[in-house]
Amino acid sequence: MDIINQTNRTILFEEINPEKLDLITLVGDVKGIDSLSDDKIKEINKQLLVRSFDEFLDKFSPSVYSFFNAANQKVVYALKRPEGLSEDAVSEIKIDQHNDFLKMLFTLIDTKRSQGISNVDFKFEHLLDMISPKKVMDDIRQVRKEIHYLYGQYEKLDEGDPKKLDMGDKLNVLFEEASKNYNNVMAMLPLAIEDIKTRLLLGGSQEENRAEAVQIGMLTIGESGELKIIEAPKSDSTELMLLDDQAGSGLPEVFADDYGSITETPSPYVKDLVVRTFSPLPAVQNEIDTATEVSNYNTYLEFYKNAKDDFVKTVKPLVEKILGVKMFFDQYASKNKGMAPTLLITNSKLDMTVKSGNIPRLETYLNTVNAKNDFSDAIWYGIVPSVELETAGKVKVSRERFKGNEKLVKEDGNSMESLSMLLQVVSEYKVQVFFSFESGEETTFSSIATAGIDKYVDKCSVLVRKGFSEFAIPCVPNFTIIPKDKSGVVIDSRMLQTEYGVQLSQEKEDILKLWIEGVYVGASYVAAGIVAAYQCPEYLREQFKTVSKDYPGVRFDIEAGDNALRVVTSMAKEISGFTNNIKDSINRKNFGFVFSSENAQLQDKDIRRITVYKARSLAMSEDGFDSIYKTLVSTYIERILRFQTGDFKHENIVKFFSNNPSSQKSKWLGARGYINSIIQDGDDMSYVIDEKSNLCHIDLVYNGNVKNLEVMITKGTTPVKA
Q1: N- or C-end of the chain: fewer Cβ atoms within 10 A?
Q2: Is there a contact between 676 and 668 (Cβ–Cβ < 8 Å)?
Q3: Taking CA 611 as the corner, what is the angle to CA 346 and CA 442, rounded to the nearest 5 degrees?
């Protein structure tokens, strides 16, 4: 570990935010250059390298842009900032931890993980309504509670008290969060919807969602002893009174002033809405124009539903990338942090990265970080999600008799041609690329459980028996966060004005619902994440007793013994398992990095997570395809060999493989017996030097299977002693 201090830096070939810098731009023109400067690598790391999911959100600030179209009265959303529009006409919506859609998905993933329930039994609808106005309002109520509590404490303290200043800092942060929405009409809509509902349905039972006219009254006993409620006398005072002994009574004015000073185009209605939302008061009930309020409510609700629908459809491809990055980092669930995985994001589309004019830039970058004896910035793995997977042609329908799926224009996936071009380049620098196919119902666990993996084997046939095949790792199946058929979100019901008062409609056609159409995460993110995680000895030590702190997990074979049941993913089970026929087929082909959602036990404990079933590349072997660890060990040994022999000096290679106790081979042989030993029981390594061709042929033996490694020898001036 003192020579190679990390074996898990990963490069993601994906565009996250087109407004941010990308690898091709940062590398720049490389004519006549073999290597980038240290300063340039430092700059690239500063802009594109992330060590955690939070740092990823901070550096790349994934965003969606929106503007209003007066011609059709709609909100338009786009993943790229629209050109030709003035800055103030376009709103930037950051997709971060505070975004309700992303928050809902995180909660769903965590809940499913903790329950370990398969998709068919999991109650998705209980969590999907987190993006309804009602749940958005619940979050605001929590913020409101904190503001009121802190403001009450703040008011009690003396001026200049350090504690009061600390409270002031906390209040500033909470007000900043609240004020972000003042100018955002879309963010205010859920508040307006819930506000109208609260005022109009005041006194109505929550279950029935109906209300009658309300007059605040008082309970009295009449002249004859009868019990009755009479209308309470109206207060002449126009002061806004709070319930709790005046504590925080200044808050309504604070919010009103805050709104007035921040908002570019103030509206009295929105000002009152802000005050009512963040500082509700038992003020005198004003006369409500019920007809107008009901009309407003239904208009707001319809607009919100349509806008949310368009937003979700636009943002979904970006959200799936964000979830992918989160799942990559989530696999490293180690209490003791050691060699934590890092991710370098190219921030440009794959087809742009592999354009003939840009390939030299990628090559120069990889040559700088991977072809030196300094391995701190070396890239070991790559991730390519969303590779196109053509399925059999659908029957063309001349007449639509029933409403079918809308023909959506899918975001372009990565082509096999672009992937082949990339593999051609990165294989020279020993980067193992995990790739997965386009997300959707056709690439899920359910799909493999019914149809097997033949379509993936066929699709990858063009990448087999190539010089780069051992660096190509197809990952299947993709992970389902929300299944397509369970992705309906009830926003709310339309409001009706009846002779009995106001009520929410119970009719099916008046319930407004949007469909998310399923959310998925590419298998390549999780596969690269789990392999990057088990490189760390600290991570392995939490699952195994015999772990050496001196070696990374390059020789760890996740397919061996019960390793896959110990090193599990963070993903919850999705289905009850594959049939024996499907498993027999996967075992016969030994193809790809295959995940499994099986019932399993380890030491009498149920395994409720998705596990790794196969970990193979596209390199052919006697029993199908080769294990990915063989390529990884080969790369590791070659890099250690280059370092210790001074770039493959003849006499130093002989020393490296000698039987001398201080030789590297002897040290590795002496350290057998660990789960991460470089040479394990049944393994061996030998070499033959071909003087004529000036090559050293190294045979790495894994349980009887031989893998060849070839290096060019540097001739020394001193005679060689064996």
Answers
A1: C
A2: no
A3: 65
Which pLDDT value is given to residue 285?
A: 47
E strand or H helix that includes residue 209: none
Query: Maximum distance among all alpha carbons in the chain?
Result: 125
All residues at 6 or more sequence positions from 508 whose CB lies less than 8 Å from its CB, including other chains:
none
Task: Say whether 217 sits in a helix, a strand or coil.
Answer: strand
Q: How far is CA 580 from CA 8, 23, 68, in A?
A: 34, 45, 55
Q: Which residue has the tokens 């605001």?
A: 140
- CA pair distance 668, 678, nearest whole angstrom: 6
> Over 70: is that where the pLDDT of 249 sits?
no
Residue-wise pLDDT for 569-623, tens only, equals: 999 999 988 999 999 999 999 999 999 998 888 888 888 899 999 999 999 988 7
User: Sign of the C-alpha dihedral, residues 282, 284, 288, 293?
Assistant: negative
With b for 16 or more beta-carbon neighbours within 10 A and e for fewer, the 404-421 pattern comes to: eeeeeeeeebbebebbeb
Pull the structure tokens for residue 302. Answer: 């319809």
Q: How far apart, in whole angstroms, are the C-alpha atoms of residue 675 and residue 541? A: 9
| Paired tokens of 708 | 């060849």
In the sheet that holds 611-621, the strands lie side by side as 49-50, 342-345, 9-12, 381-387, 432-437, 472-476, 593-596, 611-621, 624-627
Strands (E), 40-194: 49-50, 63-69, 74-78, 91-94
Question: Cβ(647)–Cβ(653) under 8 Å?
Answer: no
Encoded amino acid at 114, one letter: S
Q: Using CA of residue 576, residue 580, residue 585, residue 587, what is the dihedral sign?
A: positive
Residues 6+ apart with CB under 8 A from 394: none
pTM over 0.85: yes
CA angle 648, 654, 660 (to 5 degrees): 130
In 2-122, DSSP assigns E strands to 9-12, 49-50, 63-69, 74-78, 91-94
Query: What is the C-alpha R_g of the chain?
Result: 31
Q: DSSP assignment, residue 462?
A: G
Strand partners, 600: 607
| Neighbour count for residue 58 (Cβ, 10 Å) | 11
Q: Are 300 and 293 in contact (CB under 8 A)?
A: no
How far is CA 55 from its chain centroid? 13
CA distances from 705 to 203, 472, 597, 630 (A): 78, 20, 29, 10
Alpha carbon of residue 80 to chain centroid: 19
Closest by Cα among 616, 418, 308, 476 to 13 = 418
Question: What is the distance, to the nearest Å, from the Cα of residue 699 to the centroid of all Cα atoms in its chain?
Answer: 40
Q: Report residue 398: phi and psi, to 5°.
A: -80, -30
Which of the pair, 675 or 135, is modelled with greater confidence? 675
Count CB neighbours of 386 within 10 A.
25
Strand, helix or coil at 638?
helix
Kindly report, residue by residue over 324-339, the tens digit of the pLDDT: 999 999 999 888 889 9
Amino acid type, 9: R
**CB–CB of 697/710 below 8 Å?**
yes
Of 262, 322, 368, nearest to 44 by C-alpha is 368
CA dihedral 563, 568, 572, 577 (to 10 degrees): -20
pLDDT for 392 beyond 50:
no
